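Sanity check

After download, print the first record. It should look like this:
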Amino acid sequence: MVVKFDPYNSDTLENHMNYSIGDLLLKKKHPLLEEYLTSKICEMEEILSKINITSESAKIRSEDIKQKINELRSVLDGSVG
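Expected structure tokens:
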């Protein structure tokens, strides 16, 4: 059985955050976490800026990316300071 993982699917977003960042890094507020999160946010914003929203699937993809950016920002806000 093959399972397709879509990291931008809102159903898997929380699990993706744990897998991509790591629970331990989040808990310990690793010194490089802020830099990593900022980099990921920039990558996602770049992708978002290049999406041509002409179809329903593109709109869905765009909303998923916006949601991921918001999640990354909330993690960043919670990790700084």
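If your output differs, re-run the checksum step. Summary of this record's structure: The longest helix spans residues 56-79.
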